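Chapter summary example: a protein plus 7TS.
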Amino acid sequence: MTNTTKDFTADTRASHFDVEKIRKDFPILQQEVHGKPLIYLDNAATSQTPTVVVDALRKYYFEYNSNVHRGVHRLSQIATDAYEGTRKKIQHFLNAKSNEEIIFTKGTTDGINLIAASFGRGLIKQGDEIVISAMEHHSNIVPWQMMCEERGAKLRIIPINDNGEIIFEAYEGLLNERTKLVSIVHTSNSLGTVNPLREIIDLAHSKGVPVLVDGAQAVPHTHVDVQALDCDFFVFSSHKVFGPTGIGVLYGKKEWLQKLPPYQGGGDMILNVTFESTKFNDLPYKFEAGTPNIADVIGLGVAIDYIQKVGYSAISAYENELIRYAVQRLSEIEGLRFIGQAKKRAGAVSFVLENVHPHDIGTILDREGVAVRTGHHCTQPVMQRFKVPATTRASFAFYNTKEEIDALIKALYKVIEMFS
Ligand code: 7TS
């Protein structure tokens, strides 16, 4: 590992998590907003970036900016080694069997679109069915809708209960001989629900159905082992795991990626081109047409190093304590209703306040320096399910503190006072 942060992994007790030391790695957190210290609780939308990642981007542009896979010259070789080195790093990070199973994308949305388009074109016929859940982000709904419309296929939805958990028996009832794929979120961005993925995947596999997992909100908080999960596809975004924007990862089992047709055509994804026909490149390049986002891939690699230095066991212990504390403090507020109370949860807490529109809450909190997200969080069907127009969502990362949660609560009391 290449960065210089202290290894916190050995100390997994949340109370000994050296959050002040970690916060020093994130210069953006040191600022004031509207004359108040910034309290950044919008990590589910995008997380902040440590200095080591920005340094890696700077180093790339200042020292070896060059295209990959094509130049024999020195700079191109360094860039190719760094780019492909990150692919190997991510293979180990996700415990994939092979680095051919790691495809670089623009992000979670791009990864899902890739599979929807490619799966649709290659394997979906009229009457086939795709199963998703009622808690999906729009990016795990719309690409399937578009593909289903194009292919004459049907989208089936697993319902959720009042706690925001999927109803497993209903899921079981949806699987049949027409089901071609299940695409499901690991951790919900608007409810905080962590889904029972092993059970979901095992059941789908028992009927011969592959599963795509939207891991956008999982990877920031928990270690993901794609072989242990046995998922067929897994996607996540760099900008939610302390890396640069505009880059993401698609993991796919080799046998599936070999079977699927390419998503886009262009340079790098070919072995040989004539006007009559084209021979596609081997994995993973078959799915990476054109010059990739080289700098940000390298930046993502450094972000992964950073997370691993902090250590997932320490992150989970610390964040669980933060979430417990947030839920306890928020539940003391009269007129506050949680949207999403799953037994297993991570990352985000969503709520509504009686008689106050979430957008007003967001604006007033902003004046207090507290950044939360208000709205439908790109999960409009979740809002429809809970009959609310929008929610206020506080979402956490390992650099947040209990003092910041206290500041959120204080600001919420200010909101209540203004509207009473
Ligand atoms: N899936 C989930 C579960 C997400 O939370 C998001 C982004 C996406 C997919 C799409 O990721 P992207 O990186 O391709 O945009 N979620 C949010 C959010 O909660 N607030 O802003 C973006």
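Key point: The chain has two domains: 14-50+311-419, 54-308.
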